[in-house]
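Q: Sequence in, structure out?
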Amino acid sequence: MKTVGAVMATYNGEKFLSEQLDSIIHQTKRLQQIVIVDDKSRDRTREIIRKYLDRFPELIDFKENSENLGAKKTFEKGLMLCDTDYIALCDQDDVWRPEKIEKMVKCLLENETAKLCFHDLEIINQDGLLRAKSYWAKAPENEPLPVSGSAARDRIANFSNPVPGCTMVFDSSLKEHILPMPSSAVGHDWWISAVAFYFAEPVFIAEPLGQYRFHPNQTAGIGTTLIKKKNERKILPTHSRIVREVKRIVFSKRSKKEKEMALKVGRYAVSAELLKIIEKYRETFLRSDRDDEYRITADRMRKNLIVYGE
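A: Exactly. Output:
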């Protein structure tokens, strides 16, 4: 039987944390591990977690950062501690549908090449009132995302709307490529989805299996990709650093034969997580002799999206 775990990063989340934990614990398909890493909360978050730890000591693995590391590094730490076959990411203030894990695991078992599946979301406010029935169809400040056919593949290939971390369940085999995460200004959810679309064939479940909560005290917005810069002149150097680091990480994990071949032809494989950057700054980062490489990689990503039940 495949084991399932959840990874949660917490920070000053006392208001909604209990509701989220209850929704994770009381799934129709039980989890085997819940890893919670707190990022130096200053409210009652850690107290709440310890109460759940007392009730579910065999289920919850709780760690505390000695200093504030931020969401990405905290999630990275949680992933290192999670040792289940499948891993779900979760925010501290959302709500899971009771059947979420059951349906996500079924999807992954029926699609062995997927390695990652993700689902739609309902949008609720701080009072739990419904604000949108579908994140993909109508999310505040986000363009609609087609969820079937070539239009969806084109959208994902462009990375114009990355997969929100709170909708993901992925195979632990992807950790080899996910870790370590780039230290550059790129979100953990963007990085994980990019790795998955490069190395596997992710599946989208067009059903809201969770509720995403918009509220004033959020530490990060949904589908966070790149940290916003006030000065446009700072953006180009930031992207340049991301490109260099991502190439280094992806290249370092390739086989000796692949490295030798890459060096021989004088090029690195363009990783999927670079596509949006390359699209925006194509003249800067992509010489004319790499046009074919870009086209091949983009085509591969378009083919790699599967819509569950399509």
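The two ends are 27 Å apart (CA to CA).
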